[in-house]
Amino acid sequence: MTKPKEIKYAGIGAAPGVAIGKIYSLSSRQINVENKTLKSHEIEPEVEKFRHAVEKSKNDLKILQNKTEEMDKDTAQIFQVHISMLDDVVILEETIKSIRENKKNSDMAFLETMEQMEKTFDNIEDDYLKARAADLRDIKWRVIRHIQGKVDEDLNKLKEPVIVFSRELTPSETVKLDRSLVLGFITEVGGRNSHAAIMARSLKIPSVVGLPRDLHQFIHTGDQAILDGNKGILIMYPTLRTTRQFEKKQKDIFTFEKSLDSTKKLPARTKDGKDIDMAANIEFIEEVESIKDLGAQGVGLFRTEYLYLAKDQLPTEEEQFIEYSQIIKKLDGKPIVIRTFDLGGDKMPQSFRLPKEENPFLGVRAIRIATSFDENIFTTQLRAIVRASVFGNVRILFPMISCVSEIRYCQNMVNKVKKQLKTKGIKYAEKIPIGAMIEVPSAAVIADLIAKECDFLSIGTNDLIQYSLAVDRGNEYLAYLYKPFNPAILRLIRDIIIKGHERGVWVGMCGEMASDPMATMVLLGLGLDEFSVSAPSLLRIKTIIRSVEYSECEKLAKNALSFNTSQEVENYLEGILEKKFKYLIQA
What we know:
This protein is α/β, with parallel strands linked by helices. The protein folds into 4 domains: 110 residues, Phosphohistidine domain (Glucose Oxidase, domain 1), CATH 3.50.30; 109 residues, Orthogonal Bundle (Enzyme I, Chain A, domain 2), CATH 1.10.274.10; 130 residues, Phosphoenolpyruvate-binding domains (TIM Barrel), CATH 3.20.20; 140 residues, Phosphoenolpyruvate-binding domains (TIM Barrel, Alpha-Beta Barrel), CATH 3.20.20. The chain is 46% helix and 13% strand. An 8-stranded mixed beta sheet has the order 1-8-7-3-4-5-6-2. An 8-stranded parallel barrel has the order 9-10-11-12-13-14-15-16, surrounded by 4 helices. Strand 7 and strand 8 form a beta hairpin. The protein is globular.
């Protein structure tokens, strides 16, 4: 029999590391749900069957939560999120209503209710929020299995070390993975911010997600493979030469990761004494403990959209207050930048209906929801944030600011909320720093005027690049134009930092560019005060900062600004990174 030829597939690196071994392919766990019409006497027993299945599912999740707490208490909160979803009144009532009014069988009624919610998340471009659809699918199939009396496939019965392959791996399946027998996992579905990916990083299981959707047709249990969770690569049927190459890389990564650990408790300080604030971007409470362990000086961006997208109803002030308070308390006095909701565009909530627009990315989005659609939604969130400010070091960041009048409006609304709370005798922090997110070209041009109105600026490069270059960052045909190192973008970033400093405010960056090692020295040289990065990038970025001199970064930034094209800038920076941080690129 002829040995298959080596094939390489590109995906998304979700958890770092290299795994070499045989594939264990999970069979399709899709459950068939038939659409049946119930007879009148069957309706109430069907409602009870559904309720019983929900309770069984919640018991399952509590067991998984307890098991996960043994490894990581904060990661275990993922299952509390799932339990909360099953307590959601809207989900329960919609399903029971469908059973009673439409005479639907309970598994079909629940399937339709959950799939309606999934659509909201699947259509979102934001990776952090899109990843939440996997959580909905996890609880959907769990409840349906209980309704149908079926047993889930058990990942505890593996016999030898393997690379697990599945179309999608849910958090509850991930926690069942035996770390001693699971070398890594690969999936066709998912992003680096899915809960399964978060758990994989916590368990230190290398993983690659977002592989070609038809991959299951070509790989089978027993096939030899290599996955590179750093580069997001899967290699099937590797040659002996390739295998030896990655065995060496495994050893190099192990050595490199160990060296990174030594920087956890050290400051982000250049060799010539320039101190930089090193913060992390988060979305969920379960991420707090891990970023503290990594040595983050605080949270530079807490995204709040999930609170609005997870349910059909608007989150109440009290629900938001509890959520913010818990996260603030866990940070033990470290600063947290809470960004008010950035809804609209591709993040369309079910909890309220925004007007239908020809171009929603240029329409009623973020702060514009308050100024042109519904101010009460905004003030409700502000009251919750301001109330929670008594528990720690809170800063508020407003997204999609495009002019001075908008940041003034935000300031006035914060002051209005404070007066309301004071009248009611409710305590809050007297001084809450206010920041503007600079992600619209007009805001970048007048950053000095906006800086006069607030305490800090935070550069959101994801949208700044998109809007400045007139390129949809999700359009695969225009990917060649979406370039962070376009000279126009570098000049805008330089000007924002200079204008902020001229007005005496600090300037941070919370966009993806801050997490890119190739950009670190340039951003340092341009004078960036704070890097707010994804947790997996934190130690790498800090390592670069601690390994260079601020003066050399200033020279490098000046050189980078002298080039005419994105490619010229990239070639220049890649050459320097290759010389100074070879292992960092490989890892």
